[in-house]
Task: inverse folding
């Protein structure tokens, strides 16, 4: 199957010394997703494979290497949304699950299950309940120490020292915002989005960020009639800012307008930087990765924007041998949290026959199940 995949290693600050390492991480994630598509997987499978690779990296704030909570533990958030079925699965504040995105995907898939006595399959699970459910699904469970990378432990000690000196608990300036995410469209025209995060450093136990919150971390909607494009988005930044503004949904829906780049710029300005829901926030830190795709002609546009110092992005088509990975920078004279930089580029995906008809068949199948 053909398709187009894009990933990010977060909107935050990526040091020049680690720039090549971040780009290599995005490169590998794109390759894994492309391989999944070529082997017959769909957009959801590709998003999962990409994020698994990002979670396994010690550089990112997701899965292994996540920021540590106040008590020095890893608690992860992750979500995935299938734009074809519109199903959403997420886990929050979950420990000991090696790849939280796998748990989120299983929750998304299980939305179609019929349960006895009229029970409804969960779409979001947190804490111990999420871990127990992951064990039942046969996902890899590890002890607390295995989830902690040397890098995240050094950052934890650094933040603790800063606290003693300056009393700056949960100050995002001392917390890497390198949450990860992925978006994809496959040759059936199906779109999907996923996100994974360890949250802000020294967060309170049980805190759930945007990566597990509906409409805040991911959004994906497939075109049903060809009149509107298929859209998908994932976000990064300070979770509380993104939750208050539901940035993922607002980003995706802004792309229904005529010019995707101008629409995203307008969205970040009006729905985020000037949002009344952030009236008490002096620095509004966030970023979005998004795509808009026309299923009738197989053409789309990839977009990204951020108010943070940097954002690391990778993307590729299955028609191209190598991914491209870049780090987007806020202009040097612009203070983070006050203005956004937005960019985009076109892409093409060779389509399978009758993508809209396939959507209708699958949706009808799900309707006869649990919906």
Result:
């Amino acid at each position: 199957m053909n398709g187009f995949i894009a990933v990010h290693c977060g909107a935050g600050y990526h040091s020049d010394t680690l720039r090549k390492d971040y780009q290599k991480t995005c490169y590998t994630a794109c390759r894994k997703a492309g391989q999944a598509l070529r082997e017959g997987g769909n957009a959801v499978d590709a998003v999962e494979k990409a994020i698994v690779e990002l979670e396994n990296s010690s550089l990112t704030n997701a899965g292994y290497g996540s920021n540590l909570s106040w008590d020095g533990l890893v608690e992860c958030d992750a979500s995935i949304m299938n734009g074809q079925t519109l199903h959403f699965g997420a886990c929050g504040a979950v420990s000991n699950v090696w790849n939280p995105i796998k748990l989120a995907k299983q929750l998304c898939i299980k939305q179609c299950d019929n349960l006895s006595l009229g029970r409804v399959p969960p779409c979001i699970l947190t804490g111990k309940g999420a871990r127990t459910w992951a064990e039942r699904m046969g996902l890899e469970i590890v002890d607390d120490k295995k989830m902690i990378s040397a890098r995240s432990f050094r950052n934890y000690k650094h933040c603790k020292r800063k606290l003693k000196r300056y009393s700056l608990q949960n100050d995002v300036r001392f917390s890497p915002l390198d949450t990860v995410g992925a978006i994809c469209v496959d040759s059936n025209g199906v779109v999907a989005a996923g996100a994974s995060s360890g949250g802000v450093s020294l967060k309170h136990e049980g805190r759930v960020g945007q990566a597990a919150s509906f409409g805040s971390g991911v959004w994906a909607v497939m075109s049903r009639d060809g009149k509107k494009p298929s859209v998908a988005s994932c976000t990064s930044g300070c979770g509380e800012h993104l939750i208050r503004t539901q940035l993922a949904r607002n980003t995706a829906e802004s792309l229904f307008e005529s010019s995707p780049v101008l629409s995203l710029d307008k969205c970040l300005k009006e729905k985020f930087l000037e949002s009344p829901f952030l009236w008490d926030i002096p620095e509004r830190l966030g970023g979005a990765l998004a795509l808009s795709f026309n299923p009738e002609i197989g053409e789309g546009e990839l977009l990204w924007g951020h108010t943070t110092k940097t954002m690391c992005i990778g993307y590729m088509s299955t028609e191209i041998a190598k991914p491209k990975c870049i780090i987007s920078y806020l202009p040097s004279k612009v203070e983070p949290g006050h203005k956004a930089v937005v960019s985009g580029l076109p892409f093409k995906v060779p389509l399978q026959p009758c993508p809209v008809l396939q959507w209708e068949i699958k949706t009808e199948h799900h309707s006869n199940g649990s919906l």
Q: What stands out?
A: The longest strand covers residues 3-12.
